[in-house]
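Subject: mismatched residue count in predicted assembly?

I count 1268 residues in my input, but I want to confirm that the predicted structure covers every chain. Input:
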Amino acid sequence: MSNDKVGAVLVIGGGISGMQSSLDLADSGFKVYLLEKSPTIGGAMSQLDKTFPTNDCAMCIMAPKLVETGRHQNIKLITNADMEEVVGDAGHFTVTISKHSRRVDETKCTGCGICTQRCPVEVPDEYNKGFKLRKAIFVRYPQAVPSVYAIDKDICIGCGVCSEVCGAGAIAYDQTEEKMQLEVGSIIVTPGFDEFDLTKKRKEYGYGKYLNVVSSLELERMLSATGPYGGLVLRPSDGKVSKKMAFIQCVGSRDRSIGNPYCSSVCCMFAIKEAVIAQEHNPGLEATIFFMDMRAFGKEFDDYYIRAEKEHGIRFVKNNRISAIAENPNTNNLIINYIEEGELVTEEFDLVTLAVGMTAPKDAKNLSEKLNVDLNEYNFCSTDILFSPLETSRPGIFVGGAFGAPKDIPDSVSEASGAAAKASSVISSERGKLVTVKEYPPEREIGEEEPRIGVFVCHCGINIGGVVDVPDVVEYAKTMPNVAYAENNLYTCSQDTQQKIKEKIEEHGLNRVIVASCTPRTHQPLFQNTVAEAGLNPYLFEMANIRDQCSWVHMREPDAATEKAKDLVRMAVTKARLNSPLPKVPIEVKPSALVIGGGISGMNSALELSKQGYEAFIVERENELGGLMKRIHHELMGEQKDIQKKLKEIVMNIDSDERIHVFTNSTVKDVSGYIGNFKTIIDHNGEDKEIEHGIVIVSTGGEEYKPSEYLYGKNENVLTQLELEEKMAKEQKIDANTIVMIQCVGSRTPERPYCSRVCCTEAVKNALNIKELKPDANIYVLFKDIRTYGFSEIFYEEAARKGIKFIRYDDETKPKVSDKKGIEVKIKEQFLNEDLVLRPDLLILSAATIPHTDNTDLAQILKVPLSKHKFFLEAHMKLRPVEFATEGIFLCGLAHSPKFFEECVAQSSAAVSRAATILSKEKLFVEGTVSSVNEDKCTGCGTCEMVCPYGAIRVDMEELKAKVAEVLCKGCGTCGAACPEKAIDIAHFTDIQLLSQAIAALKEGST
Amino acid sequence: MKAFEPKIVGFLCNWCSYAGADLAGVSRFQYPPNIRIVRVMCSGRVDPLFVIEMFIQGADGVLIGGCHPGDCHYMEGNYHTERRVKMLKKVLAKSGLEPERLSLEWIAASEGERFAKTMRDFTEQVRSLGPNPVAGEKPNLLIMESLYAARNAVEDFRLRTLVGKELALVEKENVYDEKIPQERIDELMENAIDEELVRTRILLLAKDKPQSVKGLADKMKVPSRDILKHIVTLRDRNLIRLEGIEGTTPMYLAQTQEVEA
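Triage response: the counts match. Full output below for your records.
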């Protein structure tokens, strides 16, 4: 390999996956170019209203990531651009990009949106699926990053109005396409997916013809508060509130006749979520979901499914693949025929949602040719699924998110982080070489100086100045005590104003700065940077939001808006007077990790950590590495099907790796310290041993449930799937003629109401294996739902084709197993509505995957939470799947929830990627906005400890005083508001600051 | 006379409701200009004291905005807020101020329109309640006194401990690994509010001038036997002392350093 490696990574696709990869890499010492073909990052997630299974508002959880990606100094956003060519090899690629003209100068546009208001040309808005209109100059959605408008040349009539109204002079009609070349060390491809095209195939659903047939993403826009109907679900035909809605599942999925035989993995949960939310928004709405198998296979998905049915009354009609829809032309209602309890039923609905499947992105072929990576037969990115799910066919190019296979947000985010680990391990020697570390002048000591406040009031073109009397606000500011200087600016955020602010700080000896303009959520970092460049601590800066809170929302009341603007400035001045510089406290980071558990997840974590250049200590309770992997012998997918051979290879790699230290026969006894500096005592062969490390990865794995049902342990011909697999691997033959498999043994039961995710595919795998060994064997699989999601569906299809019989049962009609001269299984066949009696030679139980019994103790030692099913509970189910709320502690694999090999591999790589954002830093800097305890007042009552979700404040049992671990504190302030003794305060948001600011809102004199 | 324009102070969390206000702005959703917003990182930062203080200072309404349940950027700060607001509404009612002047709203970052509507509705709600009785030229001194008492009560450890631990006790477990029924906490809270309000009013009245049990009972319209019980508790807490005996009447004086009104 060449020695001219480049410490930069190109990420192609700016959806949630691309953003996650970019942030991980940029935070661990690599330069990132994030290429997005549309003018805005955010991808499909930006269009979602809510997300399952938590019903989180998608924009609420995504916006912080958008903003962070947009302003990260190591991420260069290249939007509205396409990749043209890639030459070179892993470690050093040269990439040609063409950046299309957006006809707006990105460096000048302030995102104020005045252009869009005045633009006379309207077209259907793609973001709102055509239910709303947008203009020829537009931004995809209000929170878009970058907040830069673009002209849609195809519809622009060139009237010139936008240029006339743009105060920033950002309109550039003559902007041309720009070619650029990038040098990068590796590439991550995250282009996402497209929806199955309903206009081309499956026209029998009447999409496009019947107005009240909509796609799931269209319904999502209707549900969104920012969507066309403000969250109400209305019938497009007549605008009436929908009262009776049907969902049709598997539209464009599990359908070989149209070339999409795979399962899209997300539509079942997506539909349940939409049904629940639609009911919330349209009270009294009746929702029915028609489906074949309800694939609620992810963490806590089944709980959500159960709640939807039991609490929300969503009606689920199983065993139905609806093939066509008819319309009642008088009412525009839709008519569906389906089978229920063996009878054909016809029913009318006022709205039908098609759960539209995922396809590979439309330009996948083109992209793969330019990248020279292979696609699978459905145009998704081809990977060696099992052990390298993130590697494309070309070394140095990695894949994450839905481009590898249809998947939901948490799995996409995991993969995106995992891909970041892979991409950076190619160039780990170049870490830190291309990133810019910003140098600031030394901070000016302001000591006990009298506050000298500078106030900069922004016109924002006419956005503020058109309503608020800006000069009057400036004059008012000048009258306030401690205001040493005030002025107005056309655009306070422009480059030249930054320079001016710095000059004024110097000229007037300012020691506090206030900008009265827009929202601190987007602009505070910019101005804080400016004051820091002038030698002021960033916490000496305050903002007053006189645009979003005055001019834009009180447009018809200019006087009141001006008065309010003055009040907001007065409040900011009052607070600023009390602001003090806050230090950023450095803490050292030990570049090593403790990995708890030595199964596939733990082993892969250790290997990935080592590739990144960090030491890993694996603590394994058994006497050898391998965990559950020791019991698995072959897999359906992937190139290397002999799992035990692979396991030997992995263990050999670990043994020969100098940076990995393995402690078998060991358990964790105590963990102290915090992010960057943990100290752990392990019991190693009965002796205590101390390990110091910077982070922790919890990969404790899971176990196979030992069934108490169906004669297990009583009849030697009753085995679990894993036991069957071991038996076949050993004997290389199968003696049974008739084999019955029972699914969901110990899963989806009242005491364990979750899905174990892997058992359906396991059953299909073992059944196909039996067929290999003995083609005339009779195999019956008794199931509740077959959940062979993604490409596993292909094997389910194959199994059915090979004559393996799948018979559904429900909770009320569980199979009855008895021992009468051999095993007898009774089951009711639902289609024929008749009882079957089977006499298998072997009865195989698909036993649940259960959390490891050690979890409970370990959770207490680490002070991290468990889910209600006793798996570990991550910080956020959607966007922080591999980390705990307590910083510096990560999780992956079966410790998180049941999952497949490749998912364990991806997730453990992800944990390493997240860990690398810490381990790559010699020092971490603690933000100043943390809580502090007045020990004279503290009584050690522990209320603060109870309310802190981060374990950042704890009572020291010797001193009986609460102590803050600043490094863990996020500054939310809940402890301060809870403290019975009022002994806790929060820097920059102190009681006195907030009270003074709020009182200033009420009284002019009290400032 | 100028029409009454309510003064409303809003404490909005940075991640959801402040973002919702921003979206209302970006979307140009119009609403009345009566609110002044203080940005906090989490609605969980809003100390009960802040709310009472706002009313003492003359706010006609106080709005707290947080993330929807389950959406909190800090996991569960909003759940604590919910419980504090429940407690505060009781305190306000007992202080003679309409609890409807305080509102807790969940507003998501995507709910610009909801934010605007909330502002319209809440402004109207406060307008219909009329001016804060303790604001203006002729403040209602009885309510003012009650609010001072309320401020002391919400600063006192007892209510703060109960409300601080409520969530954990009701939904997780106590030191015996048991859950405490919500009704039990509600009952305790109800009593605590009643008692602490009376106690702090006693302290306020006895701040500068020694007071007798009977005198306090008359002023506060509370039975003498109850006043006596409270004085016993306050003496235990070192908050009031026996100043002397006038004839057969013991006189009590508050330990002034502990009470600020």
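The mean pLDDT of chain A is 94. Marking this ticket as 'not a bug'.
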